[in-house]
Amino acid sequence: MPTTPEQHADPFTPPHPGQARAHREYAALLRIAERHAATDAQRRRQAHASELSPHEAVRIVAFLLSGAVSLDDGEPDVDRADIVAALSLVAQARAEADDLESGLLRMARGRGMTWQEIAFGLGLGTPQAARQRYERLAGRSAAQDDEL
Q: In whole angstroms, what is the distance from residue 51 CA to residue 94 CA?
């Protein structure tokens, strides 16, 4: 198992950035799961009770195709039209993820977080990179709003 930055044996050799990022992502998932998604009700609160989101639809088709989940009894097999339908939703799911990230960045700044802290969370090397990412996301969101 790769070592964490705290467990790194040689103090003169920096840890591998990819390994450090993987450890941080795992720790982030574990932290949020323990603190905010410990029960079924907590995990379901982000999903709409009666309407499937584009992201959920794409994940369902991908999971069924990959064999990560099994079909229920009587559920039809995933066919080419299901795959085309899922592919048709990818752009909308990506736009929703961009909007979510942009909003999270605005809220982080509103809570007083620095661009350096945000860059660390995003796995970016500099505060400038984090700010530029936010500006790109905000620009895409504004362009999408103009199209509507």
A: 18
Task: Tell which residue, 73, 49, 79, has the closest CA to residue 61.
Answer: 79
Spatial distance between the Cα atoms of 56 and 50, rounded to a whole number of angstroms: 12
CA dihedral 70, 55, 113, 24 (to 10 degrees): 30
Predicted model pTM: 0.72
**CA-based Rg of the chain, rounded to a whole angstrom?**
19
pLDDT in tens, 55-90: 989 999 999 999 999 999 999 999 999 999 999 999
DSSP state of 5: G
pLDDT at residue 6, rounded to an integer? 52
Q: Are 87 and 61 in contact (CB under 8 A)?
A: no
CA distance 21 to 120: 10
DSSP codes joined into one string, 27-40? HHHHHHHHHH-SSH
DSSP 1: -
Mean pLDDT in residue range 96-100: 92
Spatial separation of the C-alpha atoms in residues 75 and 91, rounded to whole Å: 26
Q: Who has greater pLDDT, 67 or 49?
A: 67
